[in-house]
Design brief:
With about 240 residues, the chain is α+β, with helices and mostly antiparallel strands. The chain has one domain: Beta Barrel (Porin). The protein is about 15% helix and about 55% strand. Strand 3 and strand 4 form a beta hairpin.
């Protein structure tokens, strides 16, 4: 009896051997999550991860003000080049206005620094071109004070005129930006380019008596707005190993 059972087990095992061999032959190795990330980042590329630092300045803000605009802004940015694909960037700027709102006839004045932190992504990194098209994301913040004065208002209940004057009203704002741009080499380490931005107001601190009309770094205080930059870029030389 035991001999029959042993022969049965051997026959069943021998019938499964071809199936196991075929499964081992067709089975593909499972790629680990770390391997997928490394493949997506192109870490197997021969170029070093660190590719240098760029210093950028925008010319639209000063140029617009010089042509008679109501708003003045100027900014510089520090950008790190990683794999010629990812560009973490810090933008630091200053914005001011001293203008009259044509709709409300209110005189509005403010000036303050602002900051943006984000990332640019080279969408043509595989072509290894001196210029490229990129997309990007920014998060901006500013803390500022503003003054408002204008024509007196008539009290609808008690009558008489009420002066409109608020000084050193505190405010702050936090916003996000989606952008797309192009950059090209013009001479050795000098580049230039454009970017177009869609700005979304995420949070603004209002006063009980007033709302900021202009936010440094963001623009006129709507829920969304558009912006553009004309960038001059200098790539700091560094020794490649």
């Amino acid at each position: 009896m035991s001999r029959s059972i042993l022969l049965l087990i051997i026959s069943l095992f021998s019938s499964f051997l071809p199936m196991l061999a075929q499964e081992r032959k067709t089975r593909q190795p499972v790629e680990s999550p770390q391997g997928k990330i490394a493949k997506w980042l192109d870490l197997t590329d021969t170029i070093p991860v660190f590719q240098g630092v760029n210093v950028t300045t925008d010319m639209v803000g000063p140029g617009w003000y010089a042509l008679g605009g109501d708003f003045l802004s100027g900014e510089v940015a520090l950008e790190v080049n990683l794999l010629k694909r990812f560009f973490p960037i810090l933008e630091v700027g200053y914005g001011r206005t001293d203008a009259i709102n044509e709709d409300t006839e209110l005189h509005y004045k403010t000036d303050a620094p602002y900051f943006r932190l984000g990332l640019n992504y080279n969408m043509q990194y595989k072509k290894r071109l001196p210029g490229y098209i990129y997309s990007g994301l920014r998060f901006g913040y500013t803390s500022f004070k503003y003054n408002i004065d204008g024509p007196s208002m008539v009290d609808p209940i008690w009558g008489g005129e009420l002066p409109v004057r608020f000084e050193d009203v505190k405010g702050n704002a936090f916003w996000g930006e989606l952008l797309v741009g192009v950059r090209a080499q013009i001479y050795k380490n000098f580049h230039m380019g454009w970017s177009f931005r869609y700005k979304v107001r995420l949070n603004v601190k209002d006063s009980p008596n007033s709302t900021p009309w202009y936010i440094p770094g963001f623009g006129v205080s709507d829920n969304t707005t558009f912006g553009a930059t004309y960038d001059l870029v200098y790539q700091i030389p560094w020794k490649k190993r």
